[in-house]
Amino acid sequence: MVVRLPLTTWMNSSAKGHFVAALGEFVGTTMFLFFAFAGTQVANAGSRNSANTTTGAATGFSPIVLLYIALAFGFSLMVNVWVFFRISGGLFNPAVTLAMAMVHGITLVRAFLLLIAQLAGSILASFLVSVLFPTPFNVRTTLSAETSIVRGVFIEAILTAELVFTIFMLAKEKHRATFIAPVGIGLALFVAELVGVFYTGGSLNPARSFGPCVVTGTFDQEHWIYCKLCSSSLPEEEAVVADLTKRGMSGLGPAAGAIIAVTFYKFIKILEYEVSNPCASDGDDEKEPRKIPDPEVGKTVEQRSERKESSSPEGK
């Protein structure tokens, strides 16, 4: 027997799907970032940094700390994507949402609702971690002193492109191993965090940077790299004009990475990448290049190969 909530006949329309997806994305983003931030809290427990940032160059170089943070983010994403994939798609990231909308994986309406849910989930996760744990809330993403703005943008763009393209090939492209796509997605974030935490904090996700900004009330000028919404504090009056251009850019690093991944994904789709490596077939006969019907003879390429082998002197 299926239990239905009263007064929910409106849910028989497409609004139900949007509502359930947004709810799942909100809870999923909250859970993903809660465990990721909590793990970062533990890793940075011994840090004397008072700037509430997780950037390795600011907290002190420690391979163990960097590895711990990367594992916390990678495994948290893997588990929660696996759990929430069937509800909302398990995106948890406005950059991924943008990329999915660009390849028509989701509608613009769904993308907007998921974006709101992701930002709200990030704020809630940041708040919960900040009040539950007695250690300093050192999870903000900032550039290290040695990392310029240009370098920060390119670092974030490349790392985000790796993550988004992994999601395209493992989750959007359906195959028999799609059900274990969350493992590859989590590992992609893990590898990216290993590189990015020390230099930029390893955001790859405007929502991930937005929540800690709101909770701590600290908004760095360079946060336009991660998220426009984080750049709400104004600098000194003489620097306002020079900074306005920066503030017009929304999540430039992750957004640029998403566009790079989308461009390359569409390019290889146009080139029909499936036929470039027939030996990499996942066992799906309908997508197996060697079994594409030959219009000339009405037989598959595989059948023609077998007939040639049987008719050759070596095959007799």
What is shown here, in short?
The protein is an all-alpha fold.
What would you note in describing this structure?
- Helix content is 60%, strand content 0%.
- The longest helix has 30 residues.
- It is built from 11 helices and no strands.
- With 316 residues, it is mainly α.
- Helix 1 packs antiparallel against helix 3, helix 4 packs antiparallel against helix 5 and helix 5 packs across helix 8.
List the helices and strands and how they pair.
Blueprint: H1 14-43, H2 56-59, H3 63-88, H4 94-102, H5 108-132, H6 149-172, H7 181-199, H8 206-216, H9 237-247, H10 252-270, H11 301-311
Helix pairs in contact: 1-3, 1-5, 3-7, 4-5, 4-6, 4-10, 5-8, 6-7, 6-10
Major sheet attributes: none
Q: How many distinct helices?
A: 11
Provide the β-strand percentage band.
under 5%
Low-confidence stretches: 231-250
> Can you write the helix and strand succession as a string?
HHHHHHHHHHH
Please compute the radius of gyration using only Cα atoms: 23 Å
Q: Between the first and last Cα atoms, what is the distance in angstroms?
A: 64 Å
Globally, the shape reads globular
Helix content percent band: 55-70%
Alpha-beta content class: mainly alpha
**What is the average of the pLDDT values?**
81
